[in-house]
Amino acid sequence: MVARETVCLKRLGGDRSGEEAAGRFFANPRVTVDRIIASWSEHTGPAARGRHVLAMHDTSAIKFRTRAERRRGLGQVGHGNIHGLLVHAMLAIDRDSGACLGLVGGEVWNRPGKVTPLRKRALSERESRRWVDTAERAKTVLADARSVTVIGDAESDLFPMWAMAPEPDFHLLIRVQADRRLAAAGDATLFTVAARFPVAGRQVIALPARPPDRAARTAAVEIRFGAVDICRPHNEKDRTLAKTVPLHLVEVREIDPPDGVEPLHWRLLSTHAVNTEADAWRIVNWYQARWIIEQLFRVMKSQGLGLEDSQMASADRLLKLAAIATKAACVIMQLVQERDGTHGLPASVAFDEPEIDTIELLSPTLEGKTHRQKNPHPPRSLAHASWVMARLGGWNCYYKPPGPITMRRGRERFNAIHEGRLLGSAAKRDVRLL
């Protein structure tokens, strides 16, 4: 998928025989969604060692074209007659450099046709448990990180998250979804208390585009912050959870927004201490990094792999396809991001050992006579590997940096070379055995 930037079985297989082999793979009952998702993080833990990791997670609906007579077993994923799957993923980002370290965990599922009303279900029976489960998975995968900050949008603002997930050096940063009761505050609530905090400062922040709804723009905002103790909701079924949780609240509100534009207004809760204006702006900057997880989903869909165009016949196979596409999208992002070697990631983030050996053998053969045509990156680094992919894709080391199309072409050519090398090695072993 990375090499050919597609999920189409015909293109993945290369010919009729390859297409049939790919179909058998997805039909194989021993190939499971859970095992695919378990492999998402195989390179992420080592890459995160010693770093402060921003672990951002979100959910995306994968919408497939369906007809009443051809639902393919897909459940509803939106209002009206929209059917598809849901993908929840957590992406690890280095706090200091912004490097994408890889996937941490998540879930891919097909929504059943009929569900019990939300208030009658325990957390373990709700879709929202994915937020808590993925945070718990992060504790294992990112165990060697110096510190972890899990970042989520408003949908992850669940009391069980605040009561269960935080640990020393394992923090939460979540946008507030709804008003909350506060301890020892009389009739005051989270929103009313936030409005009473004094303005601590003003800045202009950049807001990235969100096609097709929002163009990129800047916003002049003011910031407030303070400590709060949130209370366990009356309707929380798990009465073993703490009655209150101490947190810090940061509120960002746009000043004089343009006409016809919805003003920016974020209320951000965190387990990180926020004692100064600098602390508050740091929380805002970390939350803004969430756009990277949105980019992951765009690469899976219209801007890359075209997952929503798949014509695969059944929901169980589409689940496997979506799980693999999530990993492929992450690798594509890493290759493009690391083309200049800014983040110093190892090649093992995106390649296995036999592939790295092939990359190291190829690199000298792709270098030219001039200084600019030499691979400038350390051996066995992801940047070193990205340079090789770019050269194989037709980049001449001059003009503008290689983009996703060049990287895709290079990875496709590399796969053919690597497969040939493995076949050649196997043939030599057979000859020696004879």
Written description of the protein model:
By secondary structure, the chain is of the alpha+beta class. Among the domains are: 9-153 and 290-335, no CATH class; 346-433, no CATH class. The protein is 36% helix and 20% strand. It has 13 helices and 10 strands. Helix 6 links the parallel strand 5 and strand 6. Helix 11 (353-366) crosses helix 12. It starts with 8 loop residues before the first helix and ends with a helix. The mean pLDDT is 88.
Seen as an oligomer or otherwise, the chain set is single chain
For the record, give the distance between the C-alpha atoms at the N and C termini, rounded to a whole number. 37 Å
Query: SS-based structural class?
Result: alpha+beta
Number of strands: 10
Q: Can you tell me the overall shape?
A: globular
Mean pLDDT across the residues is 88
Please count the helical segments. 13
Instruction: Give start-end ranges of low-pLDDT stretches.
Output: none
Task: State the main characteristics.
ten-stranded mixed β-sheet; globular; 434 residues
